[in-house]
Specification:
This protein is mainly α. The protein is built from 20 helices and six strands. Keywords: Cell outer membrane, Membrane, Signal.
C-alpha cells in the first residue's frame, strides 16, 4: 500500500489553520493545532499533511498552465478562467490563476515549517526516525521553493511559522538567496535519508530522490539567468543516483506510465495518489482529457470524463515528431468521441490514462517529479556542458532514449558540436517529457524561451508579447495589496 495512505487521514483543517496574509501562512494560535503535536504517532499523521501539499501543488490546474501550457506544446485562442492571457503572454498581476500558485505553495511551506518546529519538542523512541522525518519535510519544502523561484524569481524565504504581523515584515529575497536555501535543505536531507525503504513505506522520499532534485537544482541554476556553471556539482549527484543500482531504464516507453509499474524502478521522486481515498486521487488524466468525452468507449473515451480546462495539443508539437516516434501515439489522442456520439478531432494528451478512475473521477496513478530517464538525460546534458565528446556517454544516453522511441541513433556528424548537442537535448526532452510539466522551465533555463515562443506565436500574431521579462510571472496583485513591502520588479531579482 502506498505510504501516503498508510495512516488514517485526518482533517488538514484541524492541523493547519490558514489566514489571508501575504504568504497565506497562519498564526500558531489555534488550540487544535497546539494540542495535536504531542506524540510520535501524531507526528506521523502530521507528516501526511506535509506530503499532501505535493499532490495539490504538483498536479494543480495552475501548475499545468504555468509549466506546460505556457510553452509551444499547447495553444488555445481563448479559454475560461484567464487562461488565455498566460498562454498568450499578456498576463497581468490581476490574473486569477497566479494567486493560487503563490498561496498554495506558501501554505504548503507553512505546513513544513510548523511540522519542523513541533517535531523538536516530541521524544521519539528512534532518534534516527525523527531526523528522517525532518529530512523528508525539508526535501518537500525545497521543491516548493524551487517552484516559486522558477515562477516568480525572488520570493520571501520563510523557515518558521509566522504570525500575521511577522509575515507582513518579510520582503522578497534575491533569486540567489532562494537557491541557497533550497540547496541547504536538500544537502542536509540527502545526507540523512535512507536510500530505500521497506515495502510498507514505499513512496517516502529517499536520499536518492533528494540528490536527483539537488542535481536538477544545480542544472537549473547553471542555466539562465544565474549561469552559475555548477555542472560538476550536478554531475556528481546524478552519477550517485545512476550508480546506485536502484533504478532501471524501461525498454518500452508505455511501461513507464503503466499503472502496474507504479513505484517501480523508473521511480525516483513521484507524488503518491490513491483514488480510493476521498480527494486523494490524481486529477491529471481527467483534467487533460477533452471536455464531454465519452466515459464508456474504451478506445475513444476516458472513463473519468474530461474537463473544460483540457489543454489543446499544438499542431507544432505534433508536426515536430520524427516519423515512427512511438511517444507521439502514447502522448496524444488525435480524435475522441463526445458523450452524445459526435466525433471530435481536437488533440489532447492521454499520457497518464492508465488503470481506472476512482469514485471522484480521479485516478490512482502516481505523478512524476523526477523519473529515471530525466536523471539520465540531465546527466547527458551536464557531460556536454563540461566537455563535448563525440559519441561519448552523453551520446549513448540520448541514443538509448531515441531507440526506445523507435528512432535511429545519431552520430557525431549529426551533432557536430556542443551547441548542436544542447539543441538535441532540448528537443529530445520536449518529446520525452511532454505534458509532465517540464517544457516551459526547460525553455527558460536554456534561454530558448524568447526565440522558441516568438517563432511559435508568430502564426497567431502574438510574437510581440514575448520578452525575457515574461520568463517570470508577475507577483499577484492580491499579495502586493496585502503587503506593500512585496513589490513588482521586472526581470529576475
Amino acid at each position: 500500500m502506498k505510504f501516503i495512505y498508510k495512516y488514517a487521514f485526518i482533517s488538514l483543517a484541524f492541523l493547519f489553520s490558514c489566514s489571508e496574509d501575504f504568504l497565506n501562512l497562519a498564526p500558531i494560535s489555534n488550540r487544535s493545532v497546539e494540542g495535536f503535536y504531542n506524540s510520535e504517532q501524531e507526528l506521523n499523521q502530521a507528516l501526511m499533511g506535509v506530503y499532501d501539499g505535493l499532490q495539490s501543488t504538483q498536479t494543480s490546474v495552475y501548475a499545468m498552465l504555468m509549466k506546460e501550457q505556457r510553452s509551444d506544446n499547447t495553444f488555445q485562442q481563448s479559454l475560461l478562467y484567464n487562461f488565455h492571457s498566460i498562454i498568450h503572454f499578456n498576463e497581468s498581476p490581476e490574473n486569477t490563476q497566479l494567486y493560487p500558485a503563490w498561496s498554495d505553495l506558501f501554505e504548503s511551506i507553512y505546513r513544513c515549517n510548523i511540522f519542523l518546529e513541533k517535531i523538536e519538542g516530541v521524544s521519539f523512541e528512534d532518534d534516527q526516525l525523527k531526523e528522517q522525518m525532518k529530512a523528508e519535510t525539508k526535501v518537500i519544502r525545497a521543491l516548493f521553493y524551487f517552484d516559486l523561484v522558477r515562477y516568480f524569481g525572488g520570493v520571501p524565504i520563510v523557515t518558521k511559522p509566522l504570525s500575521i504581523t511577522e509575515s507582513l515584515q518579510y520582503e522578497r529575497n534575491s533569486i540567489d538567496e532562494v537557491y541557497a536555501a533550497i540547496i541547504a535543505d536538500l544537502e542536509e536531507a540527502a545526507a540523512t535519508l535512507p536510500q530505500t525503504y521497506s515495502s510498507q513505506d514505499v513512496g517516502r522520499i529517499t536520499s536518492l530522490a533528494a540528490k536527483a532534485l539537488l542535481g536538477k537544482v544545480y542544472l537549473t541554476k547553471s542555466g539562465y539567468p544565474l549561469n552559475s556553471g555548477e555542472w560538476e556539482k550536478a554531475k556528481v549527484l546524478l552519477e550517485e543516483v545512476i550508480n546506485s543500482g536502484q533504478f532501471e531504464f524501461f525498454p518500452q516507453y508505455s511501461d513507464v506510465f503503466n499503472i502496474a509499474n507504479d513505484n517501480g524502478k523508473q521511480y525516483v521522486f513521484w507524488v503518491q495518489f490513491n483514488s480510493d481515498a476521498q480527494g486523494e486521487g490524481n486529477p491529471i488524466p481527467r483534467i487533460q482529457a477533452a471536455n464531454n468525452i465519452d466515459r464508456n468507449d474504451p478506445v475513444l473515451g476516458v472513463s473519468s470524463g474530461g474537463s473544460p480546462l483540457s489543454p489543446i495539443v499544438s499542431q507544432d508539437f505534433i508536426n515536430s515528431f520524427e516519423e515512427g516516434d512511438v511517444r507521439l501515439a502514447h502522448t496524444v489522442q488525435m480524435q475522441w468521441l463526445q458523450n452524445d456520439g459526435v466525433m471530435f478531432y481536437t488533440p489532447f494528451s492521454k499520457k497518464f490514462v492508465s488503470g481506472n478512475s476512482g469514485p471522484q473521477n480521479n485516478w490512482d496513478i502516481n505523478w512524476p517529479v523526477i523519473r529515471y530517464t530525466d536523471v539520465l538525460m540531465m546527466y547527458a546534458e551536464v557531460l556536454n556542458e563540461i566537455a563535448y565528446t563525440p559519441n561519448g556517454k552523453a551520446f549513448e544516453i540520448l541514443n538509448q532514449v531515441r531507440e526506445r522511441a523507435g528512432l535511429d541513433p545519431k552520430a557525431a556528424n549529426d551533432v557536430p558540436d556542443q551547441g548542436s548537442f544542447r539543441n538535441w537535448v532540448l528537443n529530445e526532452r520536449r518529446f520525452e517529457f511532454a505534458f509532465e510539466h517540464q517544457r516551459w522551465h526547460d525553455l527558460v533555463r536554456t534561454d530558448q524561451g524568447l526565440t522558441v515562443m516568438k517563432n511559435f506565436l508568430m502564426e497567431y500574431g502574438l510574437d510581440g508579447n514575448v520578452t525575457k521579462e515574461k520568463y517570470l510571472y508577475p507577483i499577484p496583485s492580491r499579495v502586493i495589496q496585502t503587503n506593500p513591502i512585496i513589490t513588482q520588479n521586472p526581470g529576475f531579482q
